[in-house]
Amino acid sequence: MPDRPVPPPAEDPEEKREGTLVTNSPDPAKADTAVADDRELSEAGSQLSTTPLEAPEEGQSVPGSFGGVRKPGLGGALAWTWRECVGWARWFWRQLTSMRVALILLFLLSFGAIPGSLIPQTGIDELKVEEFREAHETLSPIYDKLGLFNVYSSVWFSAIYILLFVSLIGCIVPRTWQFVGQLRGRPPRAPRRLDRLPAYATWRTEADPEEVREVALGLLKKRRFRADRAGDAVSAEKGFLREAGNLIFHVALIVILVAFGIGQLYKYEGGKLIVQGDGFSNTLTQFDDFKPGSLFDTDDLPPFSFTLDKFSGTYEQSGPQRGTPRTFEADVTYTESPDAAPKKRTIEVNRPLEIDGSKVYLISHGYAPVVTVRDARGEVAFSGPVPLLPRDANLTSTGAIKVLDGYRDKDGEKTQLGFQAFFVPTFAGEGKGDMFSQFPALDFPVLALNAYHGSLGVDSGLPQNVYQLDTTKMTEFKDENGELLKQRMLPGETMELPDGMGSVTFEKKIEEWASFQVSHQPGSGLALTGAVAAIAGLAGSLFIQRRRVWVRAVRGDDGVTVVEMAGLGRSESAKLPEELAELAGDLHDRAPTAAEPDAVPSEGAEK
């Protein structure tokens, strides 16, 4: 197959002829032909994408002004102001719906989500937020003003979210209509100069031009090109899935944003700490904390319930990963409604219990030492497991024991007791450091208490943290040295309160508790669908190439058919010349190269 012809070098417009400098004047016919060729090439490569073209502003008499000429008088001023406002609105809309701004907003949305992952959020864990406030007294007021403790509900995050939503819709709608128009249209006609296209091949054949065009049309359709005959050439194009993938990707982003919005508006999530043997009903009063969406109605809570029958956990016993959790399992008995039969299920980490569109996740666990408090008369004022919150990976735990009612001192007066509790499941031993656990399992449990009496402040009407003891209105119990009464106890040991005020016994039974999160995310399935569609659309837009091919077959002056093939892609790619070469090879098999005519010998040559 002959190589692509090389165009002859351009003529020098200034030539010296017989010592005289002669300037060649341009040929008007050639200039018109060049302009027509450029226009045809431009049309051949047009609409290879659905990117909207920005039309120039009309009627701008002054740079930066959309109002045009301002006529005198009030009417002229109002008309000019109206045109100016409309012009700026159109300019702002074009900027907002441009792909560049959409990418910027998408980046800002991703960047704005970073604080939500690094800073504790009130909608997830208020205790960690309070701990952060106490540890960072200077930063906390700044974070409050910026809404960093509640990122996803802040004004600035919502503004980015809404602007991105509008930008994507405004970008997709015109591209979709343009893409539909391309699908309904026909491939553009072949340019006059196919040899100016990046991929080109030509040869001469004895086959009839009409036959060549018919064969080319069949070959292109067989390769799933959308082909059409126009004049002396066949036009074909392929790769519409690239633009379809691009549109699918952007539509999928909108679907994800809609799913996120639905999830935020109609979701609910709440936490509940349950001691082994206790239960939970999915009602508002049963939650330790509850965060509903803006449009969620608490009457729509599914009426399920469950009981924590047993919690078990195993840990690595030796090696560099000693103490690392291996399994956490919560055996529960649940009912989907008050009239339903009970069922058994084991909840594990990342394997939630799914009931009526809600999921019950196992998120944490700890220990609840069983404590018995007796008053001065020896009567039981409090008895039961006390959940303590872990502070490290080895489950060093802290909390508070609060005796609100039922306690009387030696004079028979009612008062309240409070104990600061520190618990380690595996104590290092006396003289081997402070109260820090060495292992998360119950190998050597020790409970340490500090004792107070007075008012717990629960009657003030202000909410309190059940795991913290407010000692502002309480008095310390003193030991024999006049210091705060405190004692470390093993299971079965008792701490006697001074002056016969009673006692506290650390029972030999230690319960385990598990913390569950009950959540309902109605947009999860829609978000997953959008994510899968976005990946598929992005893959299509990246790996599918939009290209066009033209085949021209005309009879030359010598009666031999001249076949020309050319291809044009949206972007430079080695695949286009390869594909054109394969097409040319298939067509060449049907219309082979014609034999060169015998050379005519010159005069005087030997015969």
From TrEMBL:
Compartments it resides in: Membrane
Top-level taxon: Bacteria
Disordered as annotated region, ranges: 1-68, 574-607
UniProt-listed GO biological process terms: cytochrome complex assembly
Gene Ontology CC annotation, any one: membrane
Membrane topology: Multi-pass membrane protein
Keywords, alphabetical: Cytochrome c-type biogenesis, Membrane, Transmembrane, Transmembrane helix
UniProt keyword annotation of Endoplasmic reticulum present: no
Domain ResB-like: 99-580
Transmembrane residue ranges: 101-119, 155-177, 247-266, 525-544
Family annotation (InterPro entries): Cyt_c_bgen_Ccs1/CcsB/ResB, ResB-like_domain
Positions with biased composition (Pro residues): 1-10
PANTHER family listed in its UniProt record: CYTOCHROME C BIOGENESIS PROTEIN CCS1, CHLOROPLASTIC
Name of this protein: Cytochrome c biogenesis protein ResB
Taxonomic source organism: Streptomyces odorifer
